[in-house]
Prior knowledge:
Elements: H1 10-15, E1 19-23, E2 26-31, H2 35-44, E3 47-50, E4 57-60, H3 64-69, E5 83-90, E6 96-106, E7 109-113, H4 119-129, E8 135-138, E9 146-149, H5 153-159, E10 171-178, E11 181-188, E12 197-202, H6 207-219, E13 224-225, H7 228-238, H8 272-281, E14 285-292, E15 303-305, E16 312-322, E17 327-335, E18 345-350, E19 353-360
Parallel strand pairs: 3-13
Antiparallel strand pairs: 1-2, 3-9, 4-7, 4-8, 5-6, 6-7, 9-12, 10-11, 11-12, 14-17, 14-19, 15-16, 15-18, 16-17, 18-19
Helix pairs in contact: 2-7
Amino acid sequence: MTELLAGPIADRHIALGATFAEFGGWDMPVSYSGTVAEHTAVREAVGIFDVSHLGKALVSGPGAADFINSTLTNDIRKIEPGKAQYTLCCNERGGVIDDLIAYLVSDDEVFLVPNAANTPAVVAALAAAAPADITVVDQHRDYAVFAVQGPKSTEVLAALGLPTEMDYMAYRDATITIDGREVETRVCRTGYTGEHGYEVLPRWDDAGVVFDALLAEITERDGLPAGLGARDTLRTEMGYALHGHELSVDISPVQARSSWAVGWDKPAFFGREALLAEREAGPSRRIYGLKATGRGVPRADCTVHAEAGGPQIGICTSGTFSPSLKQGIALAFIDTDSGIKKGAEVVVDVRGRALTCEVVLPPFVESHV
Length: 369
């Protein structure tokens, strides 16, 4: 059995009473005080997530930004240095190897934050395509990542002297002093919750002091440390994709309604021809949101039917109880030839029980990013 990887502040999570579970090969905190309490803290005040398991990679060399533009789906030339961009690394069939954030540092430097388990595949795909003067370096354990999310997140960062006045998906590098220690960090105005928030990326070895300082400010503002449980309920309420569920090597951005992250007019990127063909022909399935109208919670892998006992027309990819809506919600792929559209009623088979759901388009709750 492969030993799980640990982040830089595992001792803090243990001291805070976290429960743990495996995620992407890492031993991750699932909850501290309860998923609903942590979810509510993020929606109403502020929470902090340790997501240091996320990958980090540096692409550098002459024309590094142009190289990234010829490989990843989104058009990095639509942003300027100091901005970040959501993008996809696809295979030749148009399936998604990973969805990631690209930080444009300069024409010759792009910093990437992929998903943890997919980092080696992303690095390998880019390295195989890179010309001799472009280097692709895995920096997975060089940086920690803390997501500070919620309406009071600006107060938290400002109290530590971290930059906050940025547009969404902009970032700034900063140096602050914590307990006499000079700490360099990158701060980006982004997150995975649908709330106003930031992601703070200090050096791996500085993770402990930065987390302690952030958590002290958060608890003063009725906030909480939050784990994977709340991260999943928050992102599902927003309809955000999770790789392995709404995106995968067998799921294209056209099917997942992620076409907005594809620079269709670019002459080259991984999977371009397959994706253009699928867009032209129309996908065989599309992602929708499902909102339970009866008592019950749809879960991943539950089948979707036009009527109870009828043939399967789809499958749930994620499902949870929404603490904000107080009802079950799910994301599901539905076959396009089923004729099912937004506003229709479908039936989800939840362990042999028929659960009626309304078909909607996410997000399920209002975004405040």
